[in-house]
Amino acid sequence: DAASSKSGDDAAPGDDGAAASGGAGAAAAADAAADDSAAEDEKDGDADDDDGDDGWQQFGPLPQREVPAINPKKQFKTIALLGSGAFGRVSLVRRKRDGALFALKVCSKAHLCDKRMQETAMREREAVAAVDSDFVIRLHGTHQDRDALYWLLEPCMGGELFDRVHSTTTNKLTSAAARFYVACVALALADMHALGFVYRDLKMENVLIAADGYAKLADLGFAKRVCDGRTFTQRGTPEYMAPEVVVKDTGHGLAADCWCVGVLAFELMCGYTPFRDNKGGDNPDPSVVGRNIVRQEPRIPARWDDDAADFVRRCLDKDAGTRLGG
């Protein structure tokens, strides 16, 4: 169960904090794990396809939710560009017949020539079609032509949580606001975990705010169905990776997402992540971040209330087996 105890009442911490030296001591493993060489990538790709089958009876087959076909050029009018990235672009579009607004994600096939990018696109399509959650972006239609894949998605007019946080003068949120957004994320992960999906890419940029103010997870390209098995591929943002993701030797499962919830809660309230590279500035060294994750404990501000401090410490338990929600 992803986060059954991470609902609104005990969801987020208080003010300032920083990483501090602790007692884990696997620096060599962290250094090796943080080296993102091409050879490791190839090895990881093979390992990622060789996860165990335990737990499939528990979770069962994925729900087969029908996703209608669309004709983007005939049925929709583009209003504005919302963003662009490695795969293509996302535009705000209006459906001509009723004026309904959607986000149209266009993935260029020319950019999907790499095997890993193809797998990422397929996994995102599988996950977003299967997960039926009020806290995960919904897929409303698909289309493809010679040049691109088209996904018609639920629009989130409030933008990214990252922009919401960095619009403040302190680059952090109040305790009440942080609790609310962390609760939304925890509910999203609970719905994904119920189907056996580990998200693997939690960060503020991937949390979008809907018109009603609620937060929703987006960008499910790293999501993978592991059930009770494990995956060995290192995916995600370095500062959000759980220790078992950094080290890689034992693989990781759903509990890795629960660690990320603790990092998110800490960052929302402090303005920075708990295991950051203090000397790296805008270009943190992944090997330094990896060592901090494996070696250090988060420095919890004394002014945090007991519930907030306990929540973050339990999410950031280095033992995945005893971690909150794991």
TrEMBL record:
<comment type="similarity">
    <text>Belongs to the protein kinase superfamily.</text>
</comment>
<feature type="region of interest" description="Disordered">
    <location>
        <begin position="1"/>
        <end position="70"/>
    </location>
</feature>
<dbReference type="InterPro" id="IPR000719">
    <property type="entry name" value="Prot_kinase_dom"/>
</dbReference>
<dbReference type="GO" id="GO:0005524">
    <property type="term" value="F:ATP binding"/>
</dbReference>
<dbReference type="InterPro" id="IPR017441">
    <property type="entry name" value="Protein_kinase_ATP_BS"/>
</dbReference>
<keyword id="KW-0808">Transferase</keyword>
<feature type="binding site">
    <location>
        <position position="105"/>
    </location>
    <ligand>
        <name>ATP</name>
    </ligand>
</feature>
<dbReference type="InterPro" id="IPR008271">
    <property type="entry name" value="Ser/Thr_kinase_AS"/>
</dbReference>
<keyword id="KW-0418">Kinase</keyword>
<dbReference type="GO" id="GO:0004691">
    <property type="term" value="F:cAMP-dependent protein kinase activity"/>
</dbReference>
<feature type="compositionally biased region" description="Low complexity">
    <location>
        <begin position="1"/>
        <end position="19"/>
    </location>
</feature>
<keyword id="KW-0723">Serine/threonine-protein kinase</keyword>
<dbReference type="InterPro" id="IPR011009">
    <property type="entry name" value="Kinase-like_dom_sf"/>
</dbReference>
<feature type="domain" description="Protein kinase">
    <location>
        <begin position="76"/>
        <end position="326"/>
    </location>
</feature>
<protein>
    <recommendedName>
        <fullName>Protein kinase domain-containing protein</fullName>
    </recommendedName>
</protein>
<feature type="compositionally biased region" description="Acidic residues">
    <location>
        <begin position="33"/>
        <end position="54"/>
    </location>
</feature>
<dbReference type="GO" id="GO:0005952">
    <property type="term" value="C:cAMP-dependent protein kinase complex"/>
</dbReference>
<keyword id="KW-0547">Nucleotide-binding</keyword>
<keyword id="KW-0067">ATP-binding</keyword>
<dbReference type="Pfam" id="PF00069">
    <property type="entry name" value="Pkinase"/>
</dbReference>
